[in-house]
Amino acid sequence: MKLAHVEAVKKLLATPQKIVIVPHKNPDGDAIGSTLGLWHYLTNLGQEAVIISPNDYPKFLKWMPGNEHILNFEKENIQAKKAIAEATIIFTLDFNHLGRIGQMQSVLEEKEGVFIMIDHHQAPDDYAQFTYSDTSMSSTCEMVYNFIDFLGDTDKISKAIANCLYTGIMTDTGSFKFQSTTSKTHEIAARLIEKGAENTKIHNHIYDTNSPSRLQLLGVALKNMVILPEYKTAYITLTQAELDENNFQKGDTEGFVNYGLTLDSIKFAVIFIENKEEGIIKISFRSEGDFSVNEFARSHFSGGGHDNAAGGKSDDPMKETTERFVSLLDTYKTKLQS
Ligand code: 5GP
Ligand code: MN
Questions:
Q1: Is the distance from CB of 202 to CB of 166 less than 8 angstroms?
Q2: Residue nearest to atom 11 of ligand 1 (CA)
Q3: N or C: which end of the chain has fewer CB within 10 A?
Q4: Are 124 and 133 in contact (CB under 8 A)?
Q5: What is the mean pLDDT of residues 161-181?
Q6: So where are the chain's domains?
Q7: Tens digit of each residue's pLDDT (9 = 90 or more) over 87-112
Q8: How far is residue 100 from each of residues 19, 60, 93, 304, 322, measured CA to CA in Å?
């Protein structure tokens, strides 16, 4: 973030503001962790702040301190719209174009006020007056830590803030194993543990709360996996019927896509998940090395994300979607085999 912008934000926060903080739709650990971490910080400063999530999110994220204050735009629509109407500052966290917030898009597009973006995805839009965008960052949580640091306030990081920010760093780095994990990431994680982040507890909350039906669904997903050695690609499909048969709960498919990459010599892993209600197939893409799934998702499946982790969607039925996907692979054969 530019120094001039840091000074301007500092000045803004020196006077009482009405603040709305927004994560992307289907928020993950980084989106909820970063918005809650920032919310605690701003609230402790004496600011009036509220988080509005575009929709619901998994139970394994709901233990975080302050969670009960998050408004759900779909369920608490009137209250959420009122907060947006009254807001003087809108923080948008862990996304960089307003198409990522579902039904909130039109409301925020019309909203006048100061927008502040903190995000680590590629190709940011320019809707914000103050943009802190850095694609080299492991997570938005790491950036919120930096943001607090820019404002000279790391001494104000409470145990609650530390727990929230540690969560997003852990989930977005795949527990500190992705390439985006730097020595700085570890340093920040260390500072957060010093401030009271309960690393073991956080890990348990996120990863050790499986239900029997989620494990059954994982079994179905793994059985459905199609391996295409000639393209170093593995993909999984899950239909709405399969989800229903296994008592699908939001968040149950989190992490399934990564199993493809655990196969020796597989560099590109994909999961296609049918969502009958929205009439789409939601897709997650993961890669190892220099095959950019961000570009792939952007070019072919109306999506985007990072080089090694991206998402997108298809409006076609499952069969057509996977057939189109497989037919695309030939163009990328050399890249995938290198
Ligand atoms: P996931 O596959 O875990 O849902 O998302 C992987 C990454 O891609 C995350 O950083 C997420 O924010 C991003 N992402 C997921 N879906 C979309 C999408 O539809 N559009 C864009 N631009 N990014 C997405
Ligand atoms: Mn993130």
A1: yes
A2: 305
A3: C
A4: yes
A5: 97
A6: 3-207, 212-337
A7: 999 999 999 999 999 999 999 999 99
A8: 20, 22, 11, 10, 23
pTM of the complete model beyond 0.85: yes
By three-state DSSP, how is residue 246 classified?
coil
- Quick one: which ligand is closest to 305's CA? 1
What's the CATH code, domain 212-337?
3.10.310.30
Q: What is the pLDDT of residues 241-266, one digit of tens each?
A: 999 999 999 999 999 999 999 999 99
And the tokens for 336? 């995938």
Starting at the edge strand that comes first in sequence, how are the strands of the sheet with 18-22 ordered? 71-72, 48-53, 18-22, 89-93, 114-119, 130-133
Secondary structure (3-state) at 282: strand
- CA end-to-end span of the chain: 36
Of 288, 253, 247, 246, nearest in space to 271 by CA: 253
Distance of CA 330 from the midpoint of ligand 2 (Å): 30
Q: What is the C-alpha to C-alpha distance for residues 167 and 189, in angstroms, rounded to an integer?
A: 10
Give the count of beta carbons closer than 10 Å to the beta carbon of residue 317.
13
Distance 107 CA to ligand 2 centre (A): 23
Task: Return mean pLDDT, the chain.
Answer: 97
At the topology level of CATH, where does 3-207 sit? inorganic pyrophosphatase (n-terminal core) (3.90.1640)
* C-alpha to C-alpha distances, 276 to 25, 59, 322, nearest whole angstrom: 17, 21, 16
40 contacts: CB under 8 Å, gap ≥ 6: 65, 66, 158, 160, 161, 164
Q: What's the pLDDT score for residue 338? A: 84
Pocket residue to mutate for ligand 1, from 134, 137, 284, 315, most atoms within 8 A of Cβ: 284
CA angle centred on 273, ends 260 and 270, rounded to 5°: 25
pLDDT single digits (tens) 263-295: 999 999 999 999 999 999 999 999 999 999 999
Average pLDDT on 28-57 reads 98
- Ligand 1 contacts (CB < 6 A) are 24, 100, 121, 284, 303-306, 309-313
